[in-house]
Amino acid sequence: MSATEETTGGNPNAGEGLTEDFAATSARASRRGRTRDALLALTVVAGLASVFALSRRLDARRPAEDPFQSYEELYVRPETARRLSLGFNGLAADWYWLRSLQYVGRKVDAYRGDITLDDMTALGIRNLGPLLDEATTLDPQFMAAYEFGAVVLPAIDREAAIKLVQKGIRDNPRDWRLYQHLGYIYWQAGRFGEAREAYAAGARVPGAPAWMNAMAAQMGAHGGSRDLAREMYRRMYEESADEQVRTLALKRLAQLDSLDERERIRRVLADFQTHSGRCPAAWRETAPALRSTGFKTDVSGAPLDPAGMPYVLDAAACDVRLDERSPIPKK
């Protein structure tokens, strides 16, 4: 008797029965696994939907007469959210990220003044730091959240911005852009030595561009210069995938160009005052001199700023300033 016959008790068809039983058992186990995964996914989706609905209800009950009234929104801490997400940490992180954008967007919509992405102190967005921290705790590779925090948070809570990006570096030590973000925060604060160290550390990361090392070298000697600021924003524009950040970089570059232009205009005004003994009463008196230095002027002779708006002549102070309608940041 063969080994197979001994195992099956001498029944030659018993082997086929065992194979069929094994296949049926495997199929049932596979179905149970798929059912379990589907239930888990539905549980996560249902939980997030409930949190979203609760957030909407909280928003709806916020007093309309005071859009900046301080009220605490109900957020699940990341440690709890990680347990509730049942392994779908990325999905939960996305929720926190979307909530961060909604939180800022709601404040922007209610505000009536001029703001820039890197100076939203007037909005009172104190919860932004915790929201971004929660999103990056759930998903340590959430690069968009780190970049947004590096640009927006410093004006609100600089130390929170530094800690956020430093956490990103610890979790992603081979991503040189995080060092760029950290260097930007330090540079903006005038902490040029720490900015130099951040850029130098980033330059040592494999794959980092050569300009990171050049930026570190310039930071010590030219940290507060307008030329270095122009380089900072140019690199921000080139490297960012966030359109809001790119728009900010363009605005800051235009602002730097305008600062240079206003210095040139002041020299023209000073020359006119030296030769005439008074300040010009209107731009047309200085239009030839302005055009000779490369300025474009409108029909009244007013020089145009980088956005195409005419500069305003302050005849009483013999000075020049931006038109209030110009999109170029005033500060």
CA gyration radius, whole angstroms = 31 Å
Strand content: under 5%
Number of helices: 13
Largest sheet features: 2 strands, antiparallel
Assign a percent range to the helix content. 55-70%
- Net shape: elongated
Helix-strand pattern: HHHHHHHHHHHHHEE
Structural class: mainly alpha
Q: What is the typical, i.e. mean, pLDDT?
A: 83
Uncertain residue segments: 1-8, 63-76
Please report the distance between the alpha carbons of the first and last residues. 96 Å
Q: How is the largest sheet built, in terms of strand order?
A: 1-2
What's the total count of β strands? 2
Walk me through the topology.
Elements: H1 3-7, H2 14-60, H3 78-84, H4 89-110, H5 128-138, H6 143-152, H7 154-171, H8 176-188, H9 192-203, H10 210-222, H11 226-239, H12 243-276, H13 287-292, E1 312-314, E2 319-321
Antiparallel strand pairs: 1-2
Helix pairs in contact: 3-5, 4-5, 5-6, 5-7, 6-7, 6-8, 7-8, 8-9, 9-10, 10-11, 11-12
Please explain how this structure is put together.
Strands 1-2 form a two-stranded antiparallel ribbon. The protein has 331 residues and is mostly helical. The model is unreliable at 1-8 and 63-76 (pLDDT under 50). The chain has a domain at 264-321. It is elongated, with a radius of gyration of 31 Å. Helix content is 64%, strand content 2%. The longest helix is centred in the N-terminal third of the chain and has 47 residues, at 14-60. Helix 6 packs antiparallel against helix 7, helix 7 (154-171) runs antiparallel to helix 8 (176-188) and helix 9 (192-203) runs antiparallel to helix 10 (210-222). The chain has 13 helices and 2 strands, in the order αααααααααααααββ.
